[in-house]
Amino acid sequence: MGGQIRKPETTAMEIGRRSTCIPVPEAHSRDEGEDTESPKSITPSAKVMLLGKAGRSMGHVVGLMTTLKGLPSTYNKDLQESVEPMLDHVKTVGDSIQIAEGVLATLKIQPEKMRAALDPFMLATDLADYLVRKGVPFRETHHISGRCVALSQQTGIPMNELSYEQFKGVDERFGEDIKNVFNYDTSVEMRAAKGGTSPWSVLEQVKVLKRPPSHQWPLFSPLFS
């Protein structure tokens, strides 16, 4: 259930911030009795409810672990308290997965509008990484990148439109190729480690998730060894 948390959180925040990027299907956006005539009543109901269900199901797991922790070496009646929450947990997770599948299957992404919503500040870490590739320790580049962000805010100039001289004024180690940093596609592709955002990494994650659970366990077994 914990793996389902980030999806509704991310999409719910994105819908609230830029509602045109990820339009919510009507079947998953209204409760019974809501005013369907008012645009303000269109809320990502299913996603918000999934967030609540995640807390509920994880609470059951914590309760079970607490009960097990207190068991003596011989059987006693403490485990009777585990049956009801565990049954509710199984049903809650099963229902939530079905809802999540329905939401994801009907979700419509607007890539053009999402690209238009990109902000140069998203590439602040890429500025730091740029200097790291030039041999500057990250403990320094982190602060240098912060000064570039501050300069952009103070001057009102988007960070990708700052001149080479302005970058040079922040730190002498910036080169004329600094403008190449402000490429969103390149930024995504550079995160090629496992779990990264590059197309290759994402496809690898998809392959892992499509494997049967028995094939996925070796990936997590080191956590419990």
Automatic annotation (TrEMBL):
One of its GO terms (biological process) is L-arginine biosynthetic process via ornithine. Residues 121-189 form the Argininosuccinate lyase C-terminal domain. Gene3D superfamilies: Fumarase/aspartase (C-terminal domain), Fumarase/aspartase (Central domain). InterPro entries: Arg_succ_lyase_C (IPR029419), Argininosuccinate_lyase (IPR009049), L-Aspartase-like (IPR008948). GO terms for molecular function: argininosuccinate lyase activity. GO terms for cellular component: cytosol. Residues 1-44 are annotated as: Disordered. Belongs to the lyase 1 family. Argininosuccinate lyase subfamily. This is Argininosuccinate lyase C-terminal domain-containing protein.
